[in-house]
Amino acid sequence: MIASPLFTLKIKENGLSYDRFAIIVSKKVDKRAVVRNRIRRLISSCLEELYSKMRQGRDAVFIVKREAINKSRQDFFKEIGPALERV
Q1: 58-64 and 20-24: which strand pairing?
Q2: 84 pLDDT band (50/70/90 cuts)?
Q3: What's CA 14's distance to the chain center, in Å?
Q4: What are the strands, taking DSSP E only, across the chain?
Q5: Averaged pLDDT of the chain
Q6: In whole angstroms, what is the distance from residue 22 CA to residue 52 CA?
């Protein structure tokens, strides 16, 4: 488990030849679905860009924290890249 200011990341081997990702943004982060979906899209776009550099065969769950509401794609990219490299 990796803790970041924007999210908590849990990773486990899945025994497959590809990665699977889940992004959890609860209503505690923001009540508005528009905001929660925006955060999901930002994280997904970062993962798509980093996918070719990642090791395959893992399940990853991103649990987003409240501090992620007004962050930009660059902020997410700076957090996700090093977090995935640590594992």
Answers
A1: parallel
A2: confident
A3: 17
A4: 2-3, 7-13, 20-24, 58-64
A5: 90
A6: 18
Q: Which pTM was predicted?
A: 0.86
The CATH number of 2-86 is: 3.30.230.10
For residue 75, count CB atoms less than 10 angstroms from its CB and return exposed for 0-12, middle for 13-18, buried for 19 or more: middle
Section 2-6 average pLDDT? 90
Domain boundaries, the chain: 2-86
Measured CA to CA in angstroms, residue 55 lies from 11, 15, 76, 83 at distances of 12, 12, 19, 13
Give the span between the Cα atoms of 39 and 28, in whole angstroms.
13
What the block records as the tokens of 56 is 């395959």
